[in-house]
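ligand=D-xylitol-5-phosphate
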Amino acid sequence: MPFDRSLKIAPSILSADFADFGREIAAVEAQGADWIHVDVMDGHFVPNLTFGPPLVKAIRKHITTVMDVHLMIAPVDPYIDAFADAGADILTAHVEAGPHIHRTLQAIRGAGMKAGVALNPGTPAAAVEPLLELIDLVCVMTVNPGFGGQSFIGACVTKVADLRSMIGDRPVHIEIDGGVDPKTAPLVAAAGADVLVAGSAVFRGGSVGDPAPYGANIRAIRESVRAG
Ligand code: DX5
Ligand code: ZN
């Protein structure tokens, strides 16, 4: 997985048909997804439950791009090996999820995955500064995590710009997660983001039987960034 800072759209399967993940993933990849974003929630760190390592492992074989796994769970450390075994390419943990994020990130890399750290909207960019040499990705949450379809929190855009200058030339992706659509995507891309997660804005209007809207939605986000 060579590093590059070009724009990547990562559809979140949180907005897909949960009974048909295999075909949903094939459909969004065929329609232009760059990565597949997989949201793991525990009903404790966030007020919602999704799925765990066995499901992630089962969908892995349907993903031909990058499996980007976003853990909204606490604790993280007991599950790192299970997500490595499930085939995660990138494993992202929240900085708020426990007292030893440094150890968690080392363990993720030690298990052979790229390491990401996610920040809730209430957490400042400075939380990442001590972690810059340990991460491959920082995920800036632009909604409070737990649900798809929430409104983008505009105050987070300055955090993206702060992180972009903090990261400098380091090979660290800046990912945006929450409320990304053709209106908000240009704001975060201009501030320095290169990975845009989008759930409802990609899956709306389409289905596995009629996947063309997925492609139109992905292109609309790309075009909005190009038009700036
Ligand atoms: C929210 C999840 C997101 C979610 C984004 O807690 O981490 O990945 O799927 O959904 P949208 O794009 O609909 O805001
Ligand atoms: Zn997510």
